[in-house]
Amino acid sequence: MVSAQVVDFQTVHRRDYMLSLDSQLTMDKPPIIIGGCPRSGTTLLRTMLGSHPNICAGPELAMTMQASEAAINTWNRIGERAKTAYGLEDGDFARAYGKSVEHILEIIRQKKGKPRIADKMPQSVQHFPTLCWMLPDSPLIHIIRDGRDVACSIYNYEVEMKDDNGNIMEFAKDPVVGCNYWKWITGRGMILRDHPCSDRYYEIFYENLVRDPEKEMRKLLKFINEPWSDQVLDYFKTEQNVPEYTHKNVLNPPSTKSIGKWKKQLSKKQKKRIREKCDDALTHLGYSETALKK
To answer: Could you count the other beta carbons within 10 Å of the beta carbon of residue 83?
Structure first.
């Protein structure tokens, strides 16, 4: 009895196509991975990077997140057998899945015609501790924003955030739950602060980026070993390949108008509950009552 529908790949049946891919795919520069809690400015950051003459970026493919989850799930399922019977380690699985990510990203890069590619998926940040082994040369860029503004933005987002079953995510229903989600997923990325891969981990704060975009982008480009280009500041002057519902956010220069919106949008009760649950993370990241990163 067949328990699930099996769908075979089609193009792979063309052996000439597969062989031509293998001979052409040579990645000269490691891909740049961008992550952060949803509604933290990941689209703004990848749009700015994608405006650089050397970097193509977007729209979201979720390849890195899906591959990292597959690597983790596969190891959890057969890891003990692989270790006992074949002497394999979790890093062997991580790198194998990482090569598949590099393969796909290199195909995209060649189609885009730029020397380097950046891949952005907000939730990829939760898998940075795995992605750093999957992609051992890639810089991992974590954009961080005040969790209270993030929670309000998620709650008021015009597109509902749903799980794989079509249900609205719990963190999108309540700003308090949303801020607690921000605390968790931001903490996942911050594991790399004190980690063997810390030299490839970079944090950029949304508030700093919109207040002084040139300063922040100069530092970031230096970290990823790319030359300065004024085009990263002029991203809004060119057509951007982003979903329609977020397009409006990258049609204008960076703005500080979204900083501190939580002060008016959260009730006194919500503010109190958020302080109880998230004050440690907010304080640790330097967010004061003015919601400005110092």
So the answer is: 14
In a domain, 185, yes or no: yes
Please state whether the predicted TM-score (pTM) of the whole model is above 0.90.
no
273: left (phi over 0), alpha (psi -120 to 50) or beta: alpha
- When divided into structural domains, the chain yields a total of 1
Residue 11 CB burial class (10 angstroms; 0-12, 13-18, ≥19): exposed
In a domain, 113, yes or no: yes
Residue type for position 50: G
If DSSP codes are grouped into helix, strand and coil, which group holds residue 41? coil
Q: Phi and psi for 258 in degrees, rounded to 5? A: -90, -5
| pLDDT level of residue 269 (50, 70, 90 thresholds) | very high
Task: Write b or e for each residue in 275-293: b if 16 or more Cβ atoms lie within 10 A of its Cβ, otherwise e.
Answer: eebbeebbeebebeeebbb
Q: Give the range of the structural domain holding residue 63, as residue numbers without chain letter.
A: 26-226+242-284
Confidence of residue 290 (pLDDT cuts 50, 70, 90): very low
CATH of the domain at 202: 3.40.50.300
- Which of these, 62, 57, 63, 68, lies nearest to 104 by C-alpha position? 63
Rounded CA-CA distance 114/155 in Å is 37
Q: What's residue 292's pLDDT? A: 42
